[in-house]
Amino acid sequence: MIAEFALTPWVFDQTAHHNSTEDWRIWLSTLAHRMFPQRNLCPVLVTDLSGLWTEAARKFVDQISDHRAKGYAQRLFAQIGARLVRRQLAPGAVNPAREDWWAQAGCRASTVELIDRLIATAGCHATLTGTLSALRSLADVEDDRFWQDISVEWSPLATVPAQVATLRKLSLHGEFVWLATPYATGARHDETPFACAMIRDVFRRPRGFDPPVEVELHTQRPHVGTVAEHLDAVCEAVLPYLPKAQTVRHVVWEKLLERIALAGVFTTTSTGRKHAPRWGVHMGHIARKHEAQSGATHEWKQLNDDRVGYWFGQFGSRGHNNFVTSEEIRR
Description:
Blueprint: E1 3-7, H1 21-35, E2 44-49, H2 53-63, H3 67-81, E3 84-87, H4 99-112, E4 117-120, H5 122-128, E5 135-137, E6 153-154, H6 160-166, H7 168-173, E7 176-180, H8 192-203, E8 214-220, H9 227-238, E9 247-253, E10 260-269, E11 272-283, E12 300-302, H10 305-316, E13 323-330
Parallel strand pairs: 1-2, 1-4, 2-3, 4-5, 7-8, 8-9
Antiparallel strand pairs: 6-12, 7-10, 9-13, 10-11, 11-12
Helix pairs in contact: 1-3, 2-3, 6-8
């Protein structure tokens, strides 16, 4: 499933690896290969503490003199740039000139909301491992166990809590989150419980995380009953899961075949605010109530950047003749 890493900028510091330059090259290459297993596909988000990470890491990348290591580092740094997610620093002294401060700050951030891997140089790890048990050494990336449960394909249990948990990074970091669940009709026996649980999870953000700007639920028009009845039923089901003063836009389509979760951020352009879709998941099957004790699993897949863009275009094209209507659900 999709995970979140925090790397100290010293991962890119050649002087921190002067006794193991060849190993360092291998670690950088391995990190890049495992984080980006396919073109435009990365099952990892990277923590940016209060916007300080990029500049600190860039300085180390620019100073690398080893030609091969610099090539690995530059590619990895560039790829990470599109996968950064912002977290606020916890209160306290800020000392970005020290690697141990970055390691400690990352561990504190992880106690607020889990960061799956906290990675430092071998030297920093050796110094702090006694007090920061979650800290990992860059050398660990060669061990397959380091990458356990981090993949572009996974098979969650067919239970609502298990499936919602695998999408937590999208729920936590998406400035906008769009959820396509064709058979969420407002009933308890279909995809409605999953949709409601996801909506609750998107708004369940700890202090220091901005609330989502935009949340949408996309469903298919039922074969029985009117569109107005469908809108009312879904509204009644969703309302208890909405915090006060928050909204969800319910979008109804004539035909909706795929189950998709999309998330992204907003960018500012000369023409105003614009969606920038970043992450997407194809949900092969959505858990229903009767499956809770079955032990069944179903294959889910992360979408590459091209497919994320494709589905964003499909769901965003309200002028499409498949579009029926939409309405705002507000508590």
